[in-house]
Amino acid sequence: MPARSATIITGGTVVCGGRDAAVIDGGTVAVRGNGIAEVGPAAEVAARYPDAATIDASGKLVMPGLINAHTHLYSALARGMTTAIEPSVNFLEILDHLWWRLDRALTREDIGTSAAVGAIDLVRNGTTTIIDHHASQEMIEDSLASVAEAVSPVGLRANLCFEVSERGGPARRDEGLAENERFAGAAAGAGLLTASVGLHASFTLEDETLDRAAGIAETAGIGCHVHAAEDLSDVEDSRRRSGRGVVERLASHGVLGPRSVAAHCNHVDERERAILRETDTIVAHNPQSNMNNAVGTANVPELLDAGVLVGLGTDGFSASMFEEMKAANLIHRHEAGDPRVGHDVAARLCLENNPTIASRLLDERVGVLEPGALADVIVLAYDPPTPLVAENLMGHVIFGLTGWMVETVMIDGEVVMRDREFLTIDPEETAARARELAADLWKRM
Question: Which domain holds residue 339?
Answer without folding.
Answer: 66-362
